[in-house]
Amino acid sequence: MKKNVFNNTVSTNDLIIRSALKKDLERRHARDDELRIIEELGVRHGTARIDIVVINGIMHGYEIKSDRDTLERLPEQMNEFNDIFDRLTLVVGKRHLYDAVNLIPDWWGIMAAKVDRNNKVIFHTIRKAEDNKKQVGISIARLLWREEALQILEEKNKATGVHSKPREFIYERMASELDIEILKDRVRNVLLNSRRDCRSVVQLA
Question: Distance between CA 154 and CA 72 in Å, rounded?
């Protein structure tokens, strides 16, 4: 890690990192055949939210911890996010960089965010994200609304006896009846093409 990454910088906050990261991701993925960038995507029915998700061939989650944040909630968030996303990257300010490295799994990516004297946010990739090998089907299924999950089961002729059941029963059916790669593909397709009222969405061609 370069020792001068944070020389002559000012403190970061969530808003400025989020805005700059979104623009950086749009630029980086501008040539993708399909792309959706979602801010504050709720997981486990909204009990937790990840700051930014890039959905194309995979779901790549980005969690921001600025200099003004704390790492208190990060272990709990990690437990939720590890079950769901294909890749994960922590975007962190200088205050938390070294502590964060010791908290997150080795397969998480790390991006350091700094603000220079011209108030421009600059990102340094410390470590690239690797593929997540421990995803959990029911956690991925919970990204869907009840009606979306039920429709997928109906298309697969796996919906017998679940129409009047609580949503958790439907998610359990999805996880048990669908191969996890098929389940992941169907969830991605819903978030790419069907969902229109996520909190903030950018769609590019």
Answer: 41
Token pair of 111 as six digits: 């991006």
Which domain, by its residues, includes 43? 14-127
Give residue 61's identity as a one-letter amino acid code.
Answer: G
Specify the amino acid at residue 203.
Answer: Q
* pTM of the predicted structure, to 2 decimals: 0.87
Interatomic CA distance for residues 174 and 205, integer angstroms? 30
Could you say which DSSP state residue 176 is in? Answer: H
Tens-digit pLDDT profile for residues 127-179 = 999 999 999 999 999 999 999 999 999 999 999 999 999 999 999 999 999 99
Alpha-helix runs per DSSP H in the chain: 14-28, 74-82, 97-103, 137-141, 146-155, 167-177, 180-189
- Residue 155, burial from CB neighbour count under 10 angstroms (0-12, 13-18, 19+): exposed
- 10 Å CB burial of residue 163 (0-12, 13-18, 19+) is exposed
CA distance 110 to 127: 5
Does residue 158 sit in the same domain as residue 176? Answer: yes
Query: Hey, what's the torsion of the CAs at 29, 31, 34, 39, to 10 degrees?
Result: 20
Q: Which of 127, 160, 180 is the last residue of a domain?
A: 127
Tokens of 56: 């194309």
The token pair at 69 is: 């944040």
